[in-house]
Amino acid sequence: MSSSDSDSDSEKVTCARLGNCEVCDAREAIYTCPKCEVKTCCLSCVRIHKKELECDGIRDRTKFIRMKDFTDTDLLSDYRLLEECARFVYAVRRDEKKKFTRIDKDLPIHLFKLKMAARNRGIALQFLAQNFTRHSVNTTRYHYKTNIISWRVEWIFPNVDTKPLKFVDEKCPEQNKLSRLLDKYLNPNASPFEGSKSLAFYKSAGFSGIKILLKAEKIRGSAKKFFELDPTETLGENLSGKCIVEFPIIFIVLKDHACNFEIITPEDEFESNMKEHDERENIENDVKSKKNESGLEKARQNINEQRKRPRQLLTEKVAQQKKMEIEKEIREEKKKRPKNLLFTTGYSSEESIVSSDSENESSIKK
Asked: Are 247 and 140 contacting, i.e. CB atoms less than 8 angstroms apart?
């Protein structure tokens, strides 16, 4: 028997074991999908099954396998998967960009001083990991000698003909008013710069026709919520009482388009948090009251069961006590009697019975 004949016989056996193609059902199946285990007969059927079932054909290495179906091959696959995970963790620890993504990593001294200075001003300043672009471009600094924070500010003008314009000021002292910082963007007589021609609508509207909005951070739905800022106050006063991630992002919006932005106040956010807290307390109180009620119901049920039980009369108790005493006496008499009369010495069984009867009569007379 040649090798070609053996190969053809093995193919016939596999085809018979797989059955017909599950896609066309016209021919016998040859292939099995590693992921969804669909049996197919040709390449076109493989493509059809991938398109219809949205299958990529890659075996799921974490798929559940029953113990009766678990083989040595599955054990080896799990072992290799664990080795790959260990190598990945080791590589991340060695990577300079990825190993600082831990939350508990201590801040450098200059960032720690900046965070403490912002906290003293009522600003909750938070930093991202070192590999984030927003952290790498941040130029906000705290000048320890002068006790002044110079903020990096991104000004975004969404109401432009094309796409929204973004301008960046690397160092904005906190004691400067917003109107002064925005003067070069909104003043028609200001010196021109790249992109200033696109701000014609803003320059014509002036400060009276715009709204200055700060993007809200670290609150529910923060992508659509904004705080309104006062141009007559300083930058530090406007940021007080708010959360800032790395640096402030400020939107300059025309009043006619302000309806597209959800404007909130710190008081509203505080009230919503208080409402959520109150709702949680009410739910907890309801649960506790229900538990107490259930406990009271159980106690009442026990009392009712005790009441339903029939009371035992005094005569019955006396009768039971006498019965127990008689049984106790019978047990004691049995203990006194010899266990085996054949091996008793000194007296016979009849003498023992007579003596026991005489003792009972004497005890009764006494």
From this structure: yes
Q: What string of DSSP letters covers 126-181?
A: E---TTSHHHHT---EEETTTTEEEEEEEEEE--SSSSPEEEEEEEEETTSBHHHH
Q: Between residues 288 and 78, which one has the greater pLDDT? A: 78
Which residue shows structure tokens 């800022």?
A: 229
State the residue for tokens 């016209």. 26
- Per the listing, tokens 């493989």 go with 46
Nearest to 186 by CA among 170, 165, 201, 171: 201
Predicted TM-score (pTM) of the model is: 0.48
Which alpha helices (DSSP H) does 199-309 contain, by range? 200-205, 235-239, 266-308
d(CA 168, CA 164): 13
DSSP 64: -
Residue 227: how many CB atoms within 10 A of its CB? 23
Residues near 39 by beta carbon (within 8 Å), at least 6 away in sequence? 18, 19, 20, 21, 22, 29, 31, 32, 33
- For 39, the enclosing helix (H) or strand (E) is strand 39-40
Q: How far apart are CA 142 and CA 148, in angstroms?
A: 6
Q: For residues 164 and 160, give the distance between their C-alpha atoms in angstroms, rounded to a whole number.
A: 6
Per-residue confidence at 269, pLDDT binned at 50, 70, 90?
low
Asked if 227 contacts 212 with a C-beta cutoff of 8 angstroms, the reply is no
**More confidently predicted of 306 and 247:** 247
